[in-house]
């Protein structure tokens, strides 16, 4: 296979983990006789510094023309001025919108060898294997009106939580489809006791559930879902929720795996281009030290191979190599070990 992959290393530790992910992809290409055409572009704070924009029209066009996009991380204190005209996160939101990726898939699986790395009791973590599906292009992050003004002599800030029925329906339908390949259990998370947008969400979930009776559907309020992620995560299988709730819950869920550095994600839509990135941020405090955990980024490449290129054997090979590496005792600093970013990637590549 030949495929074009756009690389967006981004800021902080992003370039470090993307570099190791490319080494893994190159190993896969050599083993399975594939050919990857890489194109590296700037996005985020580095793009603001170079071009004055967190996402240029040219970079977006390059991403739209690719088969898949691999993103490191964006942001950092340098670009955190709330009064700034542009911020790295705006580029990320614009990229998701421009690619039409409306669903973010975040698998949270606790490796048996890493149970002691989590602050939770081991008995809470055995058997945890959750797929969280977060709606990605609606809600508070995109609703309008939005901004700050003065009213009655007071400064006021406004954000609007807005959803259209089609935005809700497409992500819930995807969640049902994915649940069919797992344990056939779906948890829909909302705040229907308070929010009108959540009442629409629940209404549509019920409608889609009626068309998929083989899937056990439950509705859970977001505060209860946050509690269940800690008190009984093994009881969850597929979880689907709106944008901001998903943003918060998936960061909470990262604690289950022992480190944010372990978790990958895939952002998918109706178009052919998927966006793949680890869930961790740019971690500017450790950038340049060579100690970032590359596993989340490497597992994101496995999701890229599976979802964008339909290369299941290759994706599974990466996941098996990561599992074997962890079982073999390899650990980066965030997991209590001494391996650096490249050293961990070496261990994984050696098992490929």
UniProtKB/TrEMBL annotation:
Pfam families: Iso_dh. GO terms for biological process: L-leucine biosynthetic process. Its EC number is 1.1.1.85. One of its GO terms (molecular function) is NAD binding. Residues 4-348 form the Isopropylmalate dehydrogenase-like domain. Binds 1 Mg(2+) or Mn(2+) ion per subunit. This is 3-isopropylmalate dehydrogenase. It comes from Candidatus Accumulibacter adjunctus.
